[in-house]
Amino acid sequence: MRIKVRHIGSSVLLCGTFTVLLAVVSLPGRAQVQPSGIPVTRDLCATMERDSISRALHPERGTLEEFERALDRQVETMRLERTAGRTMAVVSIPIIMHIVHNGEAVGTGTNLSLAQIQSQIDVLNEDFRKRAGSPGFNTSPIGADVEIEFCLSAVDENGNSMAEPGVDRIDGNRADWTDDQIENQLKPTSIWNPNLFYNVWTVKFNAVESGLLGYAQFPDQTGLQGIPENSPASTDGVVISYQTCGSSDKGSFPILETPYDKGRTLTHETGHWFGLRHIWGDGRCADDFVADTPEHQGQNFGCPNGQSCDGSTSMQVENYMDYTNDACKNIFTTGQKDRMLAALELSPRRKSLLETNLCSPVAADVPTANFTATNKSCVLLGSEIEFTDLSTNFPTGWTWEFEGGDPNTSNERNPRVTYNTPGTFKVTLTATNSLGKSEPLEVEEYLVVSEEGLCNELSNFDPSYTPSTLQLSQFGNYTGYLTGHNSVGSLAFSEYFENVCGYSYISGAAIRFSKAVVAHEDAKVTVIAWSARGSQGGPNPVIERKEVLLRQIQEDIANDRATTVTFDRLTPLFSRPFHIGYEIEYTAGDSVAVVSSANGEATQATSWVKDASGQWQLITIAFGANVAMDIEPFVGANPSVQMSASKLIIYPGEEVILNGQGASIFVWDADDGSVEDFTGPQLVVNPTVQTTYTITGSGLELCNTTATATIYIRESIVGTENPTNGEAEIALYPNPGSSALWLKIDNEYQGEISVDMRNALGLEIIKPIAATKDSRVISLSLLVDRSTLNPGVYFVNVKLGKMSVVRKWIKI
Fold first, then answer.
1. What is the pLDDT of residues 667-683, one digit of tens each?
2. Residue of 60, 229, 269, 654 marked active site
């Protein structure tokens, strides 16, 4: 049988987003060496950097904090089971080694020999099993036999025997690789099914990453809301430098480079792949989330005594998760073992490696059917679900039956099925190979299809609740509103939404306000969507924001309707929990509050408040009030039409640019008839009266097909007709100024002139006065006592017959 060899073309596909992120999260400087040969600083492992980039590209993976909380829970469960006398059998992990070379003969250069590869597997087993008589043995009382073993898989993805077990030789057709190219080209095109194999790539890093030894992808957790069980699978595994693969203790392998020539790079990265953090916690005296490892001031190099955070030298520099030389390392602790075994239970792909167990001789037997699916606990009505076959003994045929599905049968290996009827449905799979059929695997109530469709409006405000505007005085020695302006200076309010069914997008929200007092015509609130990644699931970070004028809110209250807000762009939720609410400003005379339930009606603690110092708390903790706010986010599995406006309030005739997004075809209309059936993604208008513009989108599967924007006219303006084509050349000077104010009119107009002045609140400072254009320059110095004017912005309105022009004057 021939050795399997693959060739990857020389063209490189780079992802623009990835490139930008890499520039931001660039790797630190490479090794600098002392005369003794010990590195001073060196970034040997890029797992944390790669993880931060991966989570930025795949927010559905969740945060490291969520990952840690899930592991903590599982570790505690395992400790209790061990206390009760329950033990876990030794487990075996099948490895596929992707040997990436540049056309060299087997056994030369980057095309590693089978003997060198086998020496690496031997080291893994010595280290993870704390094998007596090997360099992986230690006598520490907390040194653990992890009870995980590794093998080079005897079969390929289709169950065929391999001439070189567990070795996939890939001609990459390039001399070296950036981690950009590895993640975006090499891994996705060469990875073997990560449900069956632990994928390891050996590569030559390019000059920029020449000091890098390797990096890993942390396991994804399960049991957390919004975390898909199979994403991102296309990059799951470990990458190491070809010069670190294998051990010089086990043969003559000249390409190995000291002091990383004993095979401990893969041991270190495999620790990451099972969920271990660096022993120093990736920060000075930081937490690696393992109780029995000592705190470290930072990474250690060479074979030092080191210094711990309390000043002692009781360091654990021999731990595999430090940066010390290969020859110094020989310990995983009991706590690290618990953490790795917890990851085996939590991560679906890690767990499936145990269930398929390709390290045991492949049984010549019929398959055992098994499968999984995405989002099975809450399937959105009308959505498509992907099923993944996990059957053993390498089936070649599949017979699926999907109760309530479309289609309701399939012979594909990994079919996609749409569910258009709500309910709970079973799924049946029979797998076949040359020896026969499996027993049908019939799982009752496998899928729960929600009545919630692909598009929805979520709410924590039950129809039975009493719409209330609660005074904060009910909850302490305060004034103002519980959910609006108040004496404690609350800055923002939000509602938490668990997003159980995993909606992908939020396009906006309907917020029902109960109070709005407008003293400044520019007064506004900012409607904000946050991710729920803050402390205790609080709002953080901001994912989208949109300003709304208090004038609009006041108008909506008067018409007994919620204020509808459409974001400027489609905002992804990544199927995760989120918050939506609003942020307020404190300006004299302006106030606003949102409708809430009566105290005690809502008991789910979904409402949050941001205090004057910027800290978020549940309203139940901050004020002792159990409420829900009347806020309904617009969510969907499909996109919606989005709309932005360059300005919300203008002087008559000012230009406003309106843009649409989210569809492929756009049609615009205006409520005053000034725009009818205008097509295109952008509309430029110059309204002179308050006008509402509507955009309608089509051409795609959309949740909301329309969006509106109302453009308001400043009330401080007198007159609605503006001169055009430069007919009225009018200037105020000096501007800014503090003494005499002069009005200069330089045009051909002859006739009566009317002049008045208002402040920013619209209050008259100069009542309308009549004049004639006997002179090109009119002095306003005697028309107002400027000593009584506060510094600020004023508006001078000049009417020339039927024409009206406003000029702004700034008093300093």
1. 999 999 999 999 999 99
2. 269
